[in-house]
Design a protein that fits this description.
By secondary structure, the chain is of the alpha+beta class. Helix content is 33%, strand content 14%. It folds into 2 domains: 258 residues, Gamma-glutamyltranspeptidase, small (S) subunit (Glutamine Phosphoribosylpyrophosphate, subunit 1, domain 1, 4-Layer Sandwich); 227 residues, no CATH class. Strand 12 and strand 13 form a beta hairpin.
Length: 601
């Protein structure tokens, strides 16, 4: 018989009750020299990432990505006279070569652009459902959800990345298009295989091996490349060369389009030449909200990131998280309660704004935050079964990588791009050399049933022809109280993206961390359903877990084993953060969870 769990120490219970009885005033925003100070931060004893490495510092520009080769491409474009948008486009294309599990031509994403003049722009190049898509296309004869939304040709939406990068460059770039594409072509003609590349390929080896073309390109001889080998992707180099010479016309109407359509016909998919020809990237109004004097700019729907962060931040602004302490039981309790309420509303109400009316202003309102925050009890967790969607009187007529770039003039780009799962649908387009996404799973294949990320979503996000699926991608740019550029942040991580990005902001704004500490700090997550506070492996002390459980939370430490839909090896996300410092320099850091690199100039 197992021994009983030790009781929560009486003193800790008294502390929690005392905290529940008070509501401190929120702290003033941090400015000026305060940002240059590095506070003493203590992480759990079992946590592998230290709080004390020095950030990467640079005076004239910075690029932070998950792969050093892609970061180097971005820096070289800046050094050649390109601006942040040029560097971001070149970096995104480089990631399509060296980071095939997430960087992509066969997927889509979102891009936030802040120009040196202070204007902020949000670009949506999310995938769209093919015109032949039907509401019940992923259900079997009994009405149960199959794996066809996750693996194989039907899982792919119409890719948006080439259109999005082209459009961003057309509008804001300064270098010739060919100059920003050429570095990716050079990498496709051969780059040295790294540990990071091999680790992700190994994690998905069996699933890739189920498809002939993926095996031929990425696992030649059944084994794939070895550490230090030069990996050549001739088909992808040819696609990129056509992209350089013809722009997106080739991808959506030319030879590459024909290869995609042929792959669909061969594998039973439904993307057609008509679907490809009809695709466009869209500029949308950014979501903007205030948090403790900072203006946070993020993506609007079909990204759920901006509005869900606004809902969470609006609730939490009613308490002084800095005074309560970083990752104390009380702070985690308040975050989890806000997370679960915001995700309940995210999952019910948000979808493609071109197809359904959305309560955007409600998510941003003080009245909504007041009403939702008033239901949070400081001494007890509210079971998710008791949390209904909380927007009243509203009538209604979704693997990933992130990169951040700042140039010497103050132009900034935060971009998140995805094929959804690692290596997407596992389908490689024959003759083109890139994986297609499986973002059709970001629809509610059967409303009320979890997708691969455990998200239980509603009718508004049901499958529909030409529709963009809901996403959690959350590229974010933060300005200080004076309207100056302050912070860029973003991450992959499926359903955990929103909470990871927001915690990175809390770490800086509420807890005074520098970029290294904010990125290294262990993270927690709650998404309404399943009703769990999840934390990274080794990320919480046992006494904190017991305190949360005493409040009624179910708490789960992530398994350090193989990657799953939420975490890779027990770790959450892959933050790429850049901070503008008071002296005009930049401080950056790339998440060590997946081995990236921030580089400056």
């Amino acid at each position: 018989m197992p021994s009983p769990r030790p009781a929560l120490p009486r003193l800790l219970l008294l502390v929690l009750l005392a905290l529940a009885a008070c509501r401190p005033d929120p702290p003033p925003p941090r400015h000026g020299d305060d940002l240059a100070e590095t506070p003493a931060v203590s992480f759990p004893a079992a946590w592998p990432y230290a709080p004390d490495p020095e950030p990467v510092r640079a005076p004239r520009g910075m690029v932070a990505t998950t792969d050093v080769l892609a970061s180097r491409v971005g820096i070289e474009v800046l050094e050649a006279g390109g601006n942040a948008i040029d560097a971001a486009v070149a970096t995104g294309l480089a990631l399509a070569v060296v980071n095939p599990e997430a960087g992509n031509l066969g997927g889509g994403g979102f891009m936030m652009v802040r120009l040196a003049d202070g204007s902020v722009h949000a670009q949506d190049h999310r995938e769209r459902a093919p015109l032949a898509a039907t509401r019940e296309m992923f259900l079997d004869a009994e009405g149960n959800v199959t794996d066809r939304s996750v693996v194989g040709h039907l899982a792919a939406g119409v890719p948006g990345t080439p259109a999005g990068l082209w459009e961003a460059h057309r509008r804001f770039g300064t270098l010739p298009w060919a100059d920003v594409v050429q570095p990716a072509i050079d990498l496709a003609n051969g780059f040295e295989v790294t540990v990071r590349y091999l680790s992700t390929l190994e994690a998905a080896r069996e699933r890739i091996a189920a498809f002939t073309e993926g095996t031929r390109v990425f696992l030649p001889g059944g084994a794939g490349p070895a550490l230090g080998d030069t990996f050549v992707q001739s088909d992808l180099a040819a696609v990129l060369a056509r992209l350089r010479d013809q722009g997106p016309d080739d991808f959506y109407r030319g030879e590459t389009a024909a290869l995609i359509a042929a792959e669909m016909e061969r594998g039973g998919g439904i993307i057609t030449l008509e679907d490809l020809d009809a695709y466009t990237a869209v500029w949308r109004d950014p979501v903007v909200f205030d948090y403790r004097g900072y203006a946070i700019h993020s993506m609007p729907p079909p990204s759920s990131g901006g509005l869900t962060m606004a809902a969470i931040a609006g609730m939490l602004e009613r308490w002084d998280l800095g005074a309560l302490g970083w990752n104390t039981p009380e702070t985690i309790h308040l975050m989890a309660e806000s997370f679960r309420r915001a995700y309940a509303d995210r999952n019910e109400y948000l979808a493609d704004p071109d197809f359904v009316e959305l309560p955007v202003q409600v998510f941003l309102s003080e009245e909504y935050a007041d009403r939702r925050a008033a239901t949070i009890q400081r001494d007890r967790a509210t079971p998710s079964r008791e949390i209904a969607p909380g927007i009243e009187a509203f009538l209604d007529e979704s693997h990933t990588t992130h990169y951040s770039v700042v140039d010497g003039d103050g132009n900034a780009v935060a971009a998140t791009t995805s094929v959804n799962s690692w290596f997407g649908s596992k389908v490689v387009v024959a003759g083109a050399g890139f994986f297609l996404n499986n973002t059709m799973d970001d629809f509610a294949a059967k409303p009320g049933t979890p997708n691969q990320f455990g998200l239980v979503q509603g009718e508004r996000n049901a499958v529909g022809p030409g529709k963009r699926m809901l996403s959690a991608m959350t590229p974010t740019i933060v300005e200080d109280a004076n309207g100056e550029l302050f912070l860029l942040t973003g991450t992959p991580g499926g359903a955990t993206i929103i909470t990871t990005v927001l915690q990175s902001i809390f770490n800086v704004v509420d807890h005074g961390m520098n970029v290294v500490q904010a990125v290294h700090a262990p993270r927690v997550h709650h998404q309404h359903l399943p009703d769990l506070v999840q934390f990274e492996f080794g990320g919480l002390e046992a006494v904190t877990v017991r305190a949360l459980e005493s409040l009624g939370h179910s708490v789960r430490e992530r398994d350090p084993g193989p990657p799953d839909a939420y975490f890779a090896g027990g770790m959450s996300g892959d933050l790429q953060m850049i901070m503008a410092m008071p002296d005009g320099s930049l401080a950056g850091w790339s998440d060590p969870r997946r081995g990236g690199r921030a580089l400056g100039r």
